[in-house]
Amino acid sequence: MRHPKPGRGKRRGRGPRIPAAVLRKQQAAAPNVDQVTGAKIPKSFVFSRGNIPSTLRHLQQDLRKVMLPYTALNLKEKKRNNLKDFLNVAGPLGVTHFMILSNPKSLPHLRMAKTPQGPTYTFQIEEYALAADIANSQKRPRCPPGIFKNSPLVVLSGFTGHGEPYTSLVQYFQYMVPAIDPNTVKLATCQRVLLLKYDKEKGVVDFRHYSIKLQPVGVSRKIRKLMQNYQVPDLRDLKDVSDYMTKVGYGSESEVDDEAATVSLVSDVDKLNRASRKSAVRLQEIGPRMTMRLVKVESGLCSGDVLYPVSVVKGEQTEEETEGAEDDEFADGSEDEPEDEASQDDTEDE
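== Brix domain-containing protein ==
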């Protein structure tokens, strides 16, 4: 009797489809435990609930890139999938965090939930800019693909001294990416920064995403380009190699560096940035950018007791409750939603 090949035949349940080959590749490439720290590696799903416009679809893809490499970059979604379907798939894959985009009548919402039992933090997105918008606004945008091979460094600012729910929110932010050991971390893997800043006066959280670039102090721009590009420069119109470095307009002198932005490296990063010399740290925003307001905290996974705000007026339906009602209607949907052209389940756990 012939046995069916893995990945073929009928699937049980209505969860997001993940081919068997992709599942095996992900489990082999990304173990659930960090070999250095011994801690469990947090993984995430970024998906949407209900109908959202194309701009939020792009924002969803940008958020998936932020959470790389421990997320599904092209997770397939269907309209009939409910929250339990994602939760059933999350267990075997070791997914610990959900980021859920929705679009109720007022403003877009982003829910950040800890699986499998919560809590859930609901943010109202008051302003946002896509990664493409930020790149178009820059003269020299910089976002090399290699920077997404490692998780970002999470930097928190302004959350201390405000009590709950911000104390528990800080813990959520801290553990949604793998922790690093300062004594063993390789500096070459630290290429991105995720900044989450609480503005007390406005009561909002600023979400910013940057790339990290190191430049050696005292080295001219031409030398840096020569070392980084590994290409022979065009010397046809020059009499001597020294003219390439000293000719007016070629940037022979090193750029002015702010002493406060320079660091002494403890180990070599590349051929230019070595432990023997100082390097200037430069941050360049790569997006997305969001301004969010915390409007609701639930004790469970998108359910349970409302921990924030504490006082809930009975008999009045809030925007968040309206959003939940929309999800309930959508969870029982019998119609299939056409899959996106780029919706191929894939992971970057390499």
